[in-house]
Amino acid sequence: MEQKWIKPPVETRYQEELKALRENDSGLRPENWKLSPKAVRTFILGSQKEIHYSGGVCRIRRKYFGNDALVERSIVTLAGNRGLMLVGEPGTAKTMLSELLSAAISGVSTNTIQGTAGTTEDMIKYSWNYALLLANGPDRRALVPAPLYTGMEKGIITRFEEITRTPAEIQDSLISVLSDKLLNIPELGDEGFLFAAPGFNVIGTANTRDKGVNEMSSALKRRFNFETVQPIREAAMEKQIILNEVESLARENHVEMEPDEDAAELLASTYHELREGVSSLGHRIDRPAAVMSTAEAVSVYYQTMISGYYYGDGTMDVDCLVQNLTGAVSKENKDDLEKVRAYFSTVIRDKSSREGGIWSRYYEARKWLK
Ligand SMILES: Nc1ncnc2c1ncn2[C@@H]1O[C@H](COP(=O)(O)OP(=O)(O)O)[C@@H](O)[C@H]1O
Ligand SMILES: [Mg+2]
């Protein structure tokens, strides 16, 4: 029987695309890379033409929308053996990009350290199996590899999520590994070295909202090329992302309901305008303090969709959409809800009188903003 997961890793989710790319890949490949930089780019940014491979025909879907040059630079950074640090607001697809890069380059996206205030060096480098350690003394069999060790040993990418949540002195344990590609294991005496296999590299992500929590040291910063991932600036693109994402979420969770374009449009423009501080009709808007991220918009939409699927009549309910929006914006700050209410009573009111239809229903649903 086929194994099922709630959220399969990228390499499983896009198994066929990766296989098709591999079979058709004639580009130059850095040592130990599964795909050439050209094919990695195609995997992330998609391609128009269909490709033939042993499994049939396949079209590579675009997965990241926005800055293509950033994706190219990131791949080049990794091909040049420099660490890559993706920084930006929450919900700008930093994690998604690092998973896509990892899956395309190394074939796995799961060799990951999750940075938290409690992350220790053990969780990054290695620890010991104490039973074996006591029985045989320190040798390699008693060593329990952590993601950095695994990446160096196998020649694959180690992802370090939310690195700035980790105390600075712990972050700094990466410095010598990144510059010398060598890990010291003092417990093993003369044999206490692990040299990194080709293909090893580190992709870190950091949220600018965490800035100042545990600022990275300048020594560590020098070991990475930084790329700032910007929020989407176009409402139309945001709408497309919402539709793409909820469509695949629904497919994976066997929710048999077609995404509704109009509802995606409402939500995309709401998130876009609240983030930008100006409406398409020219109103100035007081921006909420919370991050109005695309990821959040996807989750509000999907939440509404599954309510409609399980409780409703299988369509998107605008009242429910506004209730979920309320939950999302009032999470951090009470004043934000007031700002969204003001947005409804100006911008949505005007759109409602111009466009009618779903905009009027959206305007009427403002009673749920409480
Ligand atoms: N530019 C984008 N292209 C495609 N999807 C995006 C983009 N920005 C945001 N998303 C959506 O939002 C989610 C971002 O989540 P994530 O990668 O966890 O963000 P971050 O790590 O930056 O907080 C993605 O999974 C995707 O659904
Ligand atoms: Mg993230």
TrEMBL record:
InterPro entries: ATPase_dyneun-rel_AAA, CbbQ/NirQ/NorQ/GpvN, P-loop_NTPase. Pfam families: AAA_5. Residues 84-224 form the ATPase dynein-related AAA domain. PANTHER family: MAGNESIUM-CHELATASE SUBUNIT CHLD, MOXR FAMILY PROTEIN. This is AAA family ATPase. It comes from Enterocloster alcoholdehydrogenati. The lineage of its organism: Bacteria, Bacillati, Bacillota, Clostridia, Lachnospirales.
